[in-house]
Amino acid sequence: MLPRLSLETQPLDSPPVDGDRPGSSSVSVEMAERFGFFAIASNVITYLTGPMGESTAVAAANVNAWIGTISFLPLLWAFVADVFLTSPGAEDKAVSNRVLRFLDRAAISYALADIEETKAMLRLVMSYLVYAIVNAQPSTFFIKQGATMDMSISPGFLAPSATFQSFISLSTVIFIPIYDRLLVPITRSFT
User: Fold this and answer.
1) What are phi and psi of 146, to 5 degrees?
2) What are the tens digits of pLDDT across the range 160-190?
3) Would you say the C-alpha torsion 140, 141, 144, 150 has a positive or negative sign?
4) Across-strand partners of 11?
5) How far apart are CA 147 and CA 164, in angstroms?
6) Are 168 and 134 in contact (CB under 8 A)?
7) How many whole angstroms separate alpha carbon 43 and alpha carbon 59?
8) Residue 51 and residue 85: Cα distance in Å, rounded?
9) Which residue from 31, 42, 37 is spatially nearest to 70, judged by alpha carbons?
10) Quick one: CA dihedral 175, 141, 65, 25, positive or negative?
11) Cβ contacts of 116-119, under 8 Å, gap ≥ 24
12) Which chain regions cross the lipid bilayer (predicted)?
């Protein structure tokens, strides 16, 4: 039996080359990207309102535009990849949404499957806007709020206002086990 080959024509069952585990470079790049993103997102509002001299409203709008663009790009590229890199299969007719009924008139020129895909994409974009609005708050409001507070932890040690964002991750780490071990069993007892 012939060994299966990967894209690099190495047998998939062979040991990793130079001790590199599969996917470790992808994980490393993703971690570096996330560190870079959060480092910039945590400090950009302070930079825009400080050295750049922008008002808080203008700086917040600029940060929100930046975060919105970065958050929306994966959706855009997923759509492009789906359109150009996959072959269309058999599609089920989706139920029309009242908000997107205006697209039904496009049935004169386009296939029904294309119209339903467009409706699904627009529904996704609309729900994504709510996420983007909530996601922008830590990089704007939390940081500006922290800048107005007394951030001294002890004499001679002042915490930067960007550390306010760490409370989101910290609360997630603390409350997920509480949710999983306490709230889920309690609600299961009622159902």
Assistant:
1) -65, -30
2) 888 878 888 889 899 999 999 999 999 999 9
3) negative
4) 5
5) 10
6) no
7) 12
8) 45
9) 37
10) negative
11) 116/91, 117/91, 119/94
12) 65-85, 120-137, 157-179
